[in-house]
Amino acid sequence: MKLVVQVRLLPTAEQAAALEATLRACNDAANFASVTAFTTGDRREYALRKHTYREVKARGLGAQPAQHVIKKVADAYTTLKANARAGNLGPQGCARRARAESKPVTFRADAAQPFDDRCLSWDHTGHTVSIWTTTGRLKNVAFVGSLDQLKMLALYRKGESDLVCRDGMWFLYATCEISDVPVTEPDGFVGVDLGIANIATTSDGARHCGKGLNAVRHRNRELRRRLQAKATKSAKRLLKKRRRREARFAADTNHRIAKRIVTEAERTGRGIALEDLGGIRDRVRLRKPQRVTLHSWSFHQLGSFIAYKAARHGVAVIHVDPAYTSQACSACGHVDKANRPSQATFSCTSCGFAEHADVNAARNIASRGAAGWAVSHAADDAA
Ligand SMILES: [Zn+2]
């Protein structure tokens, strides 16, 4: 399994200036190579290298960075072509697609740049990297990350890392390769219900609430309203910065929740049952003030964090159909809208079972998970 670990660099002012100049030089060179690719029509890496390698290298880039720049350009054209073919740019002949295909791909001055082991080396005890720049090798650039991230990097980092600058902060996105852990046969399932007030609720009754996250989102929404009225360039920049910060905060919250859930499942020898999230936006109906907090990508992100953390620990994961999980009684199976008198409470009109609404839903998800697992593994046994 491959995954990307992100660490933040803490360069001195001088080091930051060198990194900035390096990214700019790489992306200037990429723009040059991109124009060449566009005019010659040679967009594959090997052909493009013939046309551009000498010039790109002569711009102060070494052999390795020059090759990475050319590969980056070739990859960008491959992606463009794939997007066009998949219809992501609109149908053939439409204005948007024609516009995208009528000019060379361009790279921002701070677009990400890959570094291989010859251009970037890691010191995992000192928490520093040494990195190639256009003004020479920078040594002792400090980096920080969570304990988990640092451990993962030290054990599994392999191949290239991307140097990225966002909102004036520097990051390395490092690829880690982890060998697959065999899935342990689960003894029961933890059901996970995803929601708004409680981001995730388990069938054990653990509620992971998104209080801090929802507060940040509401604050940003207010700010957005004020800034959008202004519509100046600096207002737009500030908005973008806030949105990114919100996304980072959401990712951090999701990581922590995913970790707690997977740890608990592993400790108790169980698998994890998740809702199949297709169409979550249609399914969740909310009062207006809550609507803003619903970001389906955030649910998908939490689901994928749980899935990959589970895979790392050999914990089984199953996705179940979420239909009626909130209206069905987890004790007797009776389905009724009236079972759910309010957002937070579940009270069965048939058997009288009462529970927090999200916990009841999570229990339904857990039992569907167990049933689904039994069915799919019966098929395995038969085969
Ligand atoms: Zn009941």
Query: Biggest sheet, in brief?
Result: 7 strands, antiparallel
In terms of DSSP E residues, the strand content is 15-25%
What spatial form do the alpha-carbon principal axes imply? elongated
Share of helix among residues? Answer: 40-55%
Rounded to the nearest angstrom, the distance between the terminal CA atoms is 26 Å
Sheet with most strands: strand arrangement: 2-6-7-1-5-4-3
Write down the overall mean pLDDT: 87
| Computed CA radius of gyration, to the nearest angstrom | 25 Å
Question: What is the element string, with H for helices and E for strands?
Answer: EHHHHEEEEHEEEEEHHEHHHEEEH
Number of strands: 14
The low-pLDDT segments are 279-293
Number of helices: 11
Written account of the structure:
The protein is built from eleven helices and 14 strands. It is an alpha+beta fold. The strands form three sheets. A seven-stranded antiparallel sheet has the order 2-6-7-1-5-4-3. A five-stranded mixed sheet has the order 10-9-8-11-12. A two-stranded antiparallel ribbon has the order 13-14. It is elongated and about 80 Å long. It starts with a strand and ends with a helix. About 4% of the residues have low confidence. The site of zinc ion has 8 residues, from loops. Keywords: DNA recombination, DNA-binding, Endonuclease, Hydrolase, Nuclease, Transposition. It comes from Microtetraspora malaysiensis.
